[in-house]
Amino acid sequence: MAMATFTSFPHLPSILAKPTSLCSYRRFSFVCLSTSSSSTSKTLTPDRSAPRAIPLIIPGILRGPDGKPTLQSTSAAFLHSMTHAKSKPKPKKGNSKIERRKVTTGKDVKESVVSSTPPKYSKAARRFYNEHIKVKSGKPQEGPQRLNKVLATAGVASRRNSDELIFQGKVTINGTVCTSPQTKVDISKDSIYVNGNRLPKRLPPKLYFAVNKPKGYICSCGEEPKSIISLFDEYLKGWHRKHQGIPKPRLFTVGRLDVATTGLIVVTNDGEFAQRLSHPSSQLPKEYIATIHGAVHRRHLIAISEGTIIEGVKCVPDIVEVLPTQGDASRPRLKIVVHEGRNHEVRELVKNAGLELYSLKRLRIGRFRLPSDLRLGKFVELKDSDMKLLEAKS
Fold first, then answer.
1. How far, in Å, CA of 362 to CA of 376, rounded?
2. Could you tell me which of 131, 250, 212, 220 has the C-alpha nearest to residue 380?
3. DSSP of 240-267, one letter per residue?
4. Cα–Cα distance between 32 and 42 in angstroms, integer?
5. Helix or strand run (H / E) with residue 227
6. CB atoms within 10 A of CB 6
7. Of the candidates 252, 191, 250, 245, which has an alpha carbon nearest to the alpha carbon of residue 220?
8. pLDDT exceeding 70 applies to what percent of the chain?
9. Closest CA relative to residue 44, chosen from 31, 62, 33
10. Beta-carbon neighbour count of residue 79 at 10 Å?
């Protein structure tokens, strides 16, 4: 049996050292194995006519998104470069660290990721921003709104007077006269004119104030000198200097207090909030201090606690108590808490009991109490926490 013979290649070790060079040596010739001893041998020589830039492809089977196996191929040069590539360290972002903690909730053990990155601002700074700046951004409200609501919010007129302006054809939208108050408009996109004056693209922010109403002031949005809104003249005088491009807000009172009643009243330019707070269905408790002429007996307290009919509705107070006298004050004082919110409710309760009212002061709405350091005729802007107390029923 004849033996196969190979011709030695002095450069073969250098070829094997480069895996990509093997691709150029595709064709080899081998000697024929013959039973004859006289058979001639053929040497193994590379075919130089073959192309030299054929990449080596490695096939593989992977599962696709549908779960079925698919045939995919990967270049050997890509794998070679990935193998010899040096891993680069990730850039550090400050002193942030990620901690993994195990949280046990009942029978389950969950692993939570807690970032220990120091906050950009302090807790006090973030609280100040949320309470004083975030709610006063002055940005236009998103989405279309009713035309009469937009005019009222922009300070043009009250909702009812805005309807009259629209009915009279004094309002145009994108060059067309509009006579329907329910038309939906987007103040940031639509061009709205009222009496030839263009409405600004930005609405004033929502404002909320607590006022210590003095005696003799009325709950009116007009220009009367004794109106509660006149207490804000100095505040609104410099509005355009501090809020450029934003129209002056139209303020009004939430509910009413008699001209002779003092104490807490809320002023805002948010109509939905005012309706929600003042409507009798809200059932918000309101606390009053009633100072009485003459003596108060037990029968008077029983008569007040039994309630009376106001506007066809039986109104019964939640609490009726006699307060201790203050210093040299000889007149008795009653603490009366009601929730109906009917007109002249406390006055009618006292009158029905046969008592004569000397003065009346409101101290609380919901769970928000009139600040003790707020003087008569002064106001304070409400925070988010105060708003929650106003709408709290208990």
1. 12
2. 212
3. HHHSTTSPPP--EEES---TT-EEEEEE
4. 7
5. none
6. 13
7. 252
8. 65
9. 31
10. 12
Angle formed by the axes of helices 345-352 and 298-306, to 10°? 130
Catalytic hit among 186, 190, 258, 318: 258
Among 343, 341, 321, 340, residue whose Cα is nearest residue 332: 321
Measured distance CA(68)–CA(194) in Å, rounded: 66
Looking only at Cα atoms, what is the longest distance across the chain? Answer: 148
Radius of gyration in angstroms for the set of CA atoms belonging to the chain, rounded to a whole number? 43
- pLDDT tens digits for range 70-100: 776 666 565 566 656 555 555 555 444 444 5
CA distance 195 to 173: 12
Residue 229, token pair as written in the block: 């809104």
Strands 313-315 and 308-310: antiparallel
- Please indicate whether residue 85 or residue 136 has the higher confidence score (pLDDT): 85
Mark whether 373 is an active-site residue. no
